[in-house]
Amino acid sequence: MSTGEPFALDADEADAIAELFNIGMGEPAAALSSMLGEEVHLSIPSFAVSTHARISRDLAPGMVPPVCAVRGAFAGPFTGEALLIFPEQGTLALVGRLVPVDPEADGPGEMEQDALTEIGNIILNGCLASLSNLIGGEIAGTVPGYGSGDPEAVIGSAEDPVLFVRIDMALAAGDAQGHALFLLDIASLDAFREAIRRTMDNL
Fold first, then answer.
1. How far apart are the first and last CA of the chain?
2. Beta strands 80-87 and 40-42: pairing type?
3. What is the pTM of this model?
4. Helix axes 189-202, 126-135, angle to 10 degrees
5. Does the N terminus or the C terminus of the chain have fewer Cβ atoms within 10 A?
6. What is the three-state SS of 151-196?
């Protein structure tokens, strides 16, 4: 991130964010791998100060619409929302490890939507629970809900700045690739910084 950004984080904070989310995603990803019977690969967490509109535009080239998403809000020392998002065909491949999927289906039906919602709950709220333990303060997530459409319809088009943490996910077979996204309210940035500092001091 450029130091010219109005809400820029320094290099130590950047490293700490990556480390916290890397640790936070480890256990839920392992749980999902066990459930699916297949390894789930995670990228190194990346972050930027961005907007919903810009995030939608940046993700769109690699996310053939319609996309499927599980999203939920969270609150605690810092607030925001979390999303698990996959292209429609990737969604069918992913949930097909858990439930029978009609090969002729045009898109996820109710059973497939429920399966993706459960996967989203495992990944998103599992990561938030891990972060809660790491920072020593409760981060409470809402029950995630399912949505679909083009990336802008799913992620939003607001231009207000958010701190955007992105973790790419893929099944080992390569037929399901998506993203776990965490969008933190800029109003919570100072609290987030303080939580990071306390946590890294205690690790």
1. 25
2. unpaired
3. 0.89
4. 70
5. C
6. HHHHHCCCCCEEEEEEEEEEECCCCCEEEEEEEEEHHHHHHHHHHH
> Using only C-alpha atoms, what is the Rg of the chain?
16
Q: Which residues are bridge partners to 181 per DSSP?
A: 83, 166
41 within 8 A of 172, measured Cβ to Cβ: yes
Task: Describe the crossing of helices 88-95 and 110-120 by its angle, rounded to 10 degrees.
Answer: 80
Instruction: Report angle CA 103, 67, 62 to the nearest 5 degrees.
Output: 105
Residues 82, 72 contacting (CB under 8 angstroms): yes
Angle between helices 189-202 and 11-36 (to 10 degrees): 80
Give whole-number Cα distances, 123 to 7, 47, 191, in Å: 28, 18, 23
Spatial distance between the Cα atoms of 39 and 30, rounded to a whole number of angstroms: 8
Tell me the pairing of strands 177-185 and 161-171.
antiparallel
